[in-house]
Amino acid sequence: xxxxTQTPKFRVLKTGQSMTLLCAQDMNHExxxxxxxxxxxxLRLIHYSVGEGTTAKGEVPDGYNVSRLKKQNFLLGLESxxxxxxxxxFCASSRPGLAExxxxxxxxxxxx
Amino acid sequence: xxxxxxxxxSLIVQKGGISIINCAYENTAFDYFPWYQQFxxxxxxxxxxxxxxxxxxxxxxxxxxxxxxxxxxSLHIMDSQPGDSATYFCAARTGSNYQLIWGAGTKLIIKP
Lengths: 112, 112
Hints:
The structure holds 2 protein chains of 2 kinds.
Chain A: E1 4-7, E2 10-13, E3 19-25, E4 31-38, E5 42-49, E6 56-57, E7 65-67, E8 73-78, E9 87-94, E10 102-103, E11 107-111
Parallel strand pairs in A: 2-11
Antiparallel strand pairs in A: 1-3, 3-8, 4-5, 4-9, 5-6, 7-8, 9-10, 9-11
Chain B: E1 4-7, E2 10-14, E3 19-25, E4 30-38, E5 45-50, E6 56-59, E7 62-67, E8 72-77, E9 86-94, E10 100-102, E11 106-111
């Protein structure tokens, strides 16, 4: 009964380093999302995917890239990390057209 | 026009009291209004949701009141309990691409 699993849960990076966050879901959902959560700003959509092999930009896509090579996985990449990318990142998945998103437990990223 | 404005930012309520969180929107194309609950260290989870053709929806101690003409909706938590202490997010779904627009969140603390 895993649902949505994010790895790693915590990571500290230096400015300019790169990294990838992995999201895996076992609910056979078509849609997957990456959000960032910052104090007082709610959840902001970075990128999303409506199916395997497709991705689309959300509200705050700059500095991030994503890939959805397999239906169950959605990867979020930072090519050159900046302190402004210090945040908690959440992955979510859903069935098409529904507003019930299932979230992972988050990945806390600190960029020094 | 895509924003959802949520208030208050934080709220302290005595055990047994009524907690009220408000949200307002501008876009009349929104077609679904969910509330999510988030506990520390966890991802948000769907709590209750309403469609704009309904003025009120109740699930246990949680009630959504919806005022279409005023473009406002609110979450009422009756008989608030310490276990309700969490951050609450309202959201609105756009009918065109089914993406959620999120409020900034309300941190609710129930004092025993």
